[in-house]
Design a protein that fits this description.
Elements (H helix, E strand, L loop, with lengths): L25 H15 L1 H4 L7 H21 L5
Helix pairs in contact: 1-3
Bound molecules: zinc ion.
Length: 78
Amino acid sequence: MDEPTNEPRPADSRPRLVAAHTNLTPIQEAWGAYARHQLHCRLCADLDAGPCQTAALLRQAWETLTRDAFGRLAGETA
Ligand SMILES: [Zn+2]
């Protein structure tokens, strides 16, 4: 077994970086923020805990964007 070294590995052996700019829609970004929060939030993971205010706000933001988009599709004016 090779001893670990401090020499940098070749660039192609590194894990791929996640693109910083993904061209997601605002609705997709909002849903992603909500989903990512739930994956890492202890309060959201605890079924016996009270409702998580942060998750509620993120969900509300996604619902607002979605409702607005449906309204535009239906021809409603904001
Ligand atoms: Zn939470």
